[in-house]
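Lay summary

Proteins are chains of building blocks that fold into shapes. Our project writes down both the chain and a compact code for its shape. Here are two examples, one after the other.
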Amino acid sequence: MVNPDSEDLSKSKKTIEPSDQEKKEEIQKIEQFMEETAKEEESLDALKTKTQNYLDQLLRLQAEFANYRKRVEKEKMEALKFGRVIMIERMITILDVMEGALKHSQNATDINSLIKGFEIVVQEFFRFLKSEGAQPLKTLGEHFDPHLHEALEQIETNKEEENNIILEEIQKGYTLNGQLIRPAKVKVAKIRIKETK
């Protein structure tokens, strides 16, 4: 006699146990998942390597830039130092001319040789200023320009063509490489306003 409970038990075992086909499908799914996971890990490893390479490159560039800045700063300081040396050498040359003029004036008996000595000193100074990029402003006979000239006095004139013309330079003005560093102080002609009766 067959026990009905045992029959039910065998039926339930059959339903619980997967078939061979189901087992194969599960194994294939697991293998596919493992392959995908391995590919993802490879991709992740490649990204990690790439990221590390970028980080290394960034660190190298930062170090190179820091070294570049230090080198540029050092070169700038050297250029300033060298520029000072050149300027001092030129000033010494002017000082030599001044000392020569002073020595010559002590032995000179006439005023003309004294004047000549000072003219040489002034010319040497102008040469120095020009070599540094400084230029005196043209003033006499020029139209007054408030951006370049400072009018210390206005002189009345009856001539219309002289209006706003610089008649006298009191102090020279200078530009350095085209930029005004000191305006010229001048006397300017102004047309006399005719009084109406």
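And here is the second example, written the same way.
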Amino acid sequence: MLSAEASDPNRLGWMQGFPPPPKRIIGQPDSNYFSFPKMRWTVCHFRELLPTKQVSRGLGAPVPFSYRGMWWSLHNEHGAFAARGVHGQTIYIDPTPLPAYQAVAEYLMEKAQS
């Protein structure tokens, strides 16, 4: 096992010189660029190895959703909220018609008791 000092990318000559010696090049087609000790150089120079691009956040304002306790608050005029399943299924709850359901349930319960 190499120590931190012994596995230093500069000490091992990884990516040193121009161009680096072929046996000291760390590149994306190389399947072991994330193996130790090459990983020490890869982590510090990841954007050089795999260039990244800034991604736009979009043209509009952020969507005003919030998440808590596995429920999404939709912040609409009805105060609706939803749950999302891991396979894309959705449970949407709009509380505005709930009093009507409660009134029907109470009526049916009273009718069943009489």
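What can we say about the second shape? The chain has two domains: 9-49, 66-113.
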